[in-house]
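Issue 218. Parser rejects a valid record. Input:
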Amino acid sequence: MAHQLLVFMLPEDERAFVHMLEPYALEAFPHRIPADYESFKVCLKNFHLLPQEALYLLLPQAAPLLVDKIKRGPDKGKLRVDEMRSPVIFWERCTQETPGELVCGQLWAQLEVAPETGRRKAAPDVFRTLYLEIESRIKKSYRRGHPKGYWVGKEAAMAFKAARLKLLASRLKPALVGLARLS
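Output the parser choked on:
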């Protein structure tokens, strides 16, 4: 089973998240990789280079990136990341469809054995440790969302409390998300 975090991040929260990732020497790859693409280190200096919609964060020390060539469709000729067998975290960034509305993003990684999807061995320990550390840091520093399962970055939470921002669960199912009460 995959590990997933549903997150709300404004650009300031994303910058703080990227700053948190700097020591891990992760590399960024777009969702569909052009043949001539060169990866870069995830750091604040390269923040403007991150793809706007979704990207993969690779831990090169754990294992190489496994890709397949797309043979049909509009992305023909590009490469597709094998997210089940590669040590990657899929990061779907939050989007603002209209001013004042933030659509949920996610962090996703496959850590366990999943024979039906191609992972016959668990993720390398170094990658598992990295993802669980990132997950732990987000759960400690972000606000809990309501309903349960959503995490709201500091800046997004402040904008929500000031009634400048609505938090939407997804584009297709625009259910509102709020902040959980602290006991």
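Fixed in the parser; the record now loads. Residues 161 and 179 are 9 Å apart (CA to CA).
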